[in-house]
């Protein structure tokens, strides 16, 4: 399956609106918000910083960063006009915030334009992430930082036991929504290979229990993908969605994804050294 996030602009309007809603649902989830707050708390940067967010989507993290006192201005870039339209709408009135359509592998900015480049759940969707990291390093000022947060999506599960049928939905959704489910495992080496100094690596765990907020959207999308591929019929897709909601209603729902955050610093060239 093709990663739908890499081709959002080619999807029908209804699907684009649905994906935008998914981003906002995930962003509002208390456990997801807590992980991102921990991720941001690890970032050390001075006040008056110019920040770039690559793959900003609807601007969930952009809006959070805009409210931080260390941030002077923040630019969010994404390839999907529909997501950028939603981002501009939701960020209306926030000072120092702008959004542009751009590919993270070919950024339209001069060298050394930013103090911090952030990837939030983006690198896993970018073909050739090495190119995106190289572009980010190019637009980063010496001493600036790259900070990435993303899922280790090979760990995604809702299974309560072996052969749980709902796990097929999760597997299908990840196959059709993530280009590289293990990119965060290779990210420290990719950053070092790009000449950056690794600062920190942290593991974050996301557990969705009780009402099953975000992970229900994962199951729904996976069931729809299986039905669209004629792997299962519409009736079974509906039954799988209903089973997920039955578990949630009975307090038996469980979903989990491991997330990872990594930070690296662009070296400062010593005085007199070319």
Layout: helices, strands, pairs:
Elements (H helix, E strand, L loop, with lengths): L12 H16 L1 H12 L7 E6 L5 H7 L4 E8 L2 H10 L6 E5 L12 E7 L8 H10 L1 E18 L8 H12 L5 H11 L3 E13 L3 H16 L5 H16 L4 E12 L9
Parallel strand pairs: 1-2, 1-4, 2-3, 4-5
Antiparallel strand pairs: 5-7, 6-7
Helix pairs in contact: 6-8, 8-9
Shape: globular
Cα-to-Cα separation, first versus last residue: 46 Å
Strand order of the largest sheet: 3-2-1-4-5-7-6
> Which architecture of the domain at 4-152 and 180-207 and 260-265 would the CATH scheme give at its second level?
3-Layer(aba) Sandwich
Helix proportion: 40-55%
CATH class of the domain at 4-152 and 180-207 and 260-265 equals: Alpha Beta
Give the full name of the CATH homologous superfamily of the domain at 4-152 and 180-207 and 260-265.
Answer: Vaccinia Virus protein VP39
Query: Runs with pLDDT <50, length 5+?
Result: 270-274
Structural class: alpha/beta
SSE string, helix = H, strand = E? HHEHEHEEHEHHEHHE
Radius of gyration equals 19 Å
Q: Characterize the largest beta sheet: strand count, sense, and whether it forms a barrel.
A: 7 strands, mixed
* Mean of residue pLDDT values: 92
Number of strands: 7
Number of helices: 9
């Amino acid at each position: 399956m093709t990663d739908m996030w890499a081709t959002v602009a080619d999807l029908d309007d209804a699907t684009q609106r649905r994906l935008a809603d998914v981003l906002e649902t995930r962003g509002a989830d208390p456990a997801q918000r807590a992980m991102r707050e921990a991720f941001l708390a690890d970032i050390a940067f001075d006040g008056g910083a110019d920040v770039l967010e690559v793959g900003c989507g609807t601007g969930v993290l952009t809006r959070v960063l805009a409210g931080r006192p260390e941030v002077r201005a923040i630019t969010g870039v994404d390839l999907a006009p529909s997501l950028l339209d939603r981002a501009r709408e939701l960020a209306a009135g926030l000072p120092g915030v702008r959004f542009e359509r751009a590919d993270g592998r070919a950024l339209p900015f001069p060298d050394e334009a930013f103090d911090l480049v952030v990837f939030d759940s983006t690198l896993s969707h970018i073909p050739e992430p090495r190119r995106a990291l190289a572009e980010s390093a190019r637009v980063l000022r010496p001493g600036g930082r790259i900070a990435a947060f993303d899922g280790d999506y090979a760990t995604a599960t809702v299974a309560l036991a072996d052969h749980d049928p709902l796990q097929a939905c999760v597997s299908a959704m990840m196959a059709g929504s993530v280009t590289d489910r293990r990119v965060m495992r290779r990210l420290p080496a990719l950053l070092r290979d790009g000449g950056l100094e690794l600062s920190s690596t942290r593991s974050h765990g996301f557990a969705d229990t009780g009402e099953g907020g975000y992970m229900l959207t994962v199951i729904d999308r996976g069931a729809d993908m299986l039905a669209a591929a004629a792997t299962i019929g519409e009736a079974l897709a509906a039954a799988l969605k209903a089973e997920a909601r039955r578990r949630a209603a009975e307090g038996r729902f469980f979903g989990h994804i491991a997330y990872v955050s990594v930070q690296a610093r662009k070296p400062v060239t010593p005085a007199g050294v070319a």
